[in-house]
Every structure is written in C-alpha cells, then in structure tokens.
C-alpha cells in the first residue's frame, strides 16, 4: 500500500512539473529577448509625434506592407538580405490625436538557419480603424530604426 501511495505521489509531482513547464517554458523564456513593459502612450523608443517617423530609413522590402488591411488579414514582413537577431523588435504604432500609440510588439521568427527574420501578426478587432506605421529596431547598429509606409486598417 505504501509503495502504491509513493508511486501516486511521484506521478502527480512529475505531472505537475511537466504541466508547469508546458505552460511557461523556462528555457524558451530565458533565451527569448523581451522588452520590459512600457506604457503604450509613452513607449520606451521615444516616438512622440508623427514627425519622428519622417526621417527613419524605409523598409528595404516596403512593397510587402499593404496600404490597407482588414480584420482577419495577416500583416507580415520579412528580410532576406539583412541578418538580424532575435532582438530586432517590430512595433506597430497608431496615430491618435497626432501622437503615436503602440498597438503591438512583434518578435521575429527565423528560418531553420536562423536567418531571414519574419514578423507576422493577424489583424484583429483590437486594431481600430485608423492610420498605422510599423517600426523595426534592427540589431545591426548600422541600420538602426526602419519604418514602413503608413497603412490603414
């Protein structure tokens, strides 16, 4: 009887650890780059007016960004000529009353060779109608920030 109880306790304990690891994987979380939380109205990147985006370099493959999206569309952008790391974060900003408001932060996905970063998200009802711009902070310091053309949802 004691052996049965011991086996049951061991199985439940192991199952609990396995469930926790599946819900919140420690190795993946430790390896992934994530920015600390910042207020969407006062993003850490410091953009505070529409004019901040005027002089940013344009995306090399800017034709990949459509001029208009609808709910259910997939916003996707990829690079094949620039090697970037996992810290190359994309943020989508919406202009509200002349000020940019961060709507989404997207981390890149990579192909099998850890090259060709791809940023992708589904346009949902969270994106209210308006004018948006996507900005990438490239890991490669010679590039810095890059911006898409303005698009609407």
TrEMBL record:
- Species for this entry: Bacillus toyonensis
The record ties this protein, via Pfam families, to: DUF5065
Q: This chain belongs to which protein, by name?
A: DUF5065 domain-containing protein
Query: Superkingdom of the source?
Result: Bacteria
